[in-house]
Amino acid sequence: MRLLSLTVVPALILSGCTQINETDNGSAFPEIAAPELSVETMKSITEELSSDAYEGRAPGTAGEEKATKLISEKFAAAGLAPGNGESWFQDVPLVGITAKNMTPLTISGGATDLSFAYGNEYVAASYREQPKVAVAESDVVFVGYGITAPERGWNDYAGVDVKGKTVLILVNDPDFGTQSLEGEFGGRAMTYYGRWTYKYEEAARQGAAAAIIIHDTDPAAYGWNVVESSWTGEQFYAQSANGGADQTKLNGWIQKDAAAKVFAAAGQDLTAQMAAAKKKGFKAVDLKLKASASLENDIKKTDSKNVVGILKGKTRPDEYVIYTAHWDHLGRCKPAADGDDICNGAVDNATGTAALVALAEAYVKAGAPDRSVIFLAVTAEESGLLGSKYYAENPIYPLSQTVGGVNMDAFAMAGPAKNVVVVGKGKSQLDGYLEAALKDDGRVAEAEPTPEKGFYYRSDHFSFAKLGVPMIYFEGGEDLVDGGREAGEAVSKDYTDNRYHGPKDEYDPDWDWTGVMGDLKIYYTVGRMLAMTEEWPNWNEGDEFRATRDKSRAGN
CA spacing 20 to 30 A to 191: which of 61, 131, 258, 336? Predict the structure, then answer.
């Protein structure tokens, strides 16, 4: 039967069943009764976690202690068991580095000496655990998109030695701006080579002293305000045996207008060089300039925490389905005009954390499924998916026995939609489970409209995917019941421009939760299907993660 209209505010989503369809292996999808999902749980936990008392939930702070304590208590109250032996927690060793006494970035040796102010023109941080870091009179080289991809016949570092030098790098990848999904780097869809994390990793492998990405709003998918708020204040990294000695001294960003001045000082045109960098065979350009910058670091090592709860399966308890959401946010950040400096992270991702609890309640009320279900609230997503990466590399439950999972990151407060948006649609057989779950709602699953923004590499499912575990990540769509796509796009733009990674991502008692609760029902149904089927869904043939999964499963 169909759900009641989502235009009516429900206290609970009422019962129904998914329509039975066939999996890729020909067996039927399990018939799942629609759960009882408490909107009050969603509201109360979202409001609590995003209150000023939690100070933005940065790892290693009093806000973390409060958040992880609350989540573990809510998991226990829902009826889950501790997920790490007798503990609710998995320690995640991090180092927090707070930059101070930052000098301007100075550029010399050209037609004009330049100086760029920290914060509004450039930002930088060091991954090295050193009290002071300096780059002095470092040669400046433009390396295009900073990509080394031998399987694609692409090497932006070919023929140039950047050891000890400062590299300027373009954001995204060379196919950005194309309309199709065909090209050297997947056309319009960003590859991992387009992510800023990759660019710093590759610069370090090449021996660069500093790596600075040229910020451009469209290919970055966010404005400078997001860069500034995200890169100022304490930054978290995974602890390493060498204290980050194999990393560049400085990683950072520079405003595009400022970068244009750097190129002009070298007698070069940034726009022309950006066009050249899109073509295979691009050669890095020595700008014949020198860069200097320094900063001091306050260093703090800490064990942050993933929160783990489990509902043991009835018949196959050693097979696992996993739900993930990150509990952390940015803590204190650049103040808004009214002086508010707490990045509360209500939508991102107090909503997803609340969803873990609401789902746990529903699972326990419905009774244990055949397979075990893990509820994992991870730390340090905002610092580069560090909590999920740590769990995936140090799993409490074997990844080879983890059937698949669902990631939840930032529920849209836009009202009910006619669609859901799948980030990475077409990558795995989990798409079939989602489509089956949507049938009774009359909704459709659509591919993300902006694959160039690289959302697939920006949330915690990626940590599991790259180690082979099929994960699905979808969100409420923008084709709204009330107002259609135009209204949905307006809501999304307003959030990105005015709240995302800023102090105004705050709880609003007037939010319309009907769309959220409809989406939550789908999250439940997809996960419950996985927990009740005997199938082992895989990545589709030809997908980048298929071989890793096949190798993992071969030993079972």
Answer: 258
